[in-house]
Amino acid sequence: MATSPELYARLPHAYGVATDAHEHLQLIISAESEANEKAWEYVYGAILHQGTPFPAAVPFLADLIEFVQTHPDHPAAPEIAEFIAGIAESITGARMTMGALRLSAPSDFEERFFALACQGADDGNDFWDAALSWTLLHCAQQIPQAILALQIVKDQTDYMASKAAVEALDELDAATAVLNGQDLETN
User: Fold this and answer.
1) Which of 3, 91, 11 is nearest to 52 (CA)?
2) Helix (H), strand (E) at residue 138
3) CB 3.0–4.6 Å: which of 9, 35, 130, 170 could bond 27 by disulfide?
């Protein structure tokens, strides 16, 4: 996987610093069903907490996209597709936020976010507003790669993987529409 454990150690999840994210990623790709199940519980409890992606979701998403693109027949492919769909749903659900971010994100936005993180300012609204904005923007940038990866998974013979990929592609289409200033619900 491309992301180092050190990067995860710089990013928060719902319960603190995501020092354990890389370990859980390794469990997901191990294909051992019990370890895989516990890793997904962690993911939905800490990284995509109650439908909200936390900053650790950015490299986690990138690593899962890269993995499923090269291993579309892996037993975890359906769950990976569901996670990608969850990220897409969060982007779609933040349609007002995404529009405002596209128009108003300062050029040094990422520097400001990491400055707040380095100052230990992770308990205030300014930090969490910046964290959510940073996360949504960076997850949105990964949509094209996610679409390519899920198109490969969709063509697999495993019914559950194919079904999950189709559903995730639908969510990615909706997120793309939001990012393009369209609202599929009213069209």
Assistant:
1) 91
2) helix 125-140
3) 35
> Contact, 156 vs 166, CB < 8 A?
no
**Confidence tier at 187 by pLDDT (50, 70, 90):** very low
Count of all residues that appear for the chain in the document: 187
**Average pLDDT of the segment spanning 23-35:** 86
Q: At what angle do helices 95-104 and 159-179 cross, to 10 degrees?
A: 50
CA atoms of 36 and 24, how far apart (whole Å): 8
Closest CA to 52 of 174, 139, 152: 139
**Total-model pTM:** 0.85
168: nearest Cα among 100, 98, 103, 72? 72
Nearest in space to 132 (alpha carbons), one of 153, 174, 101: 101
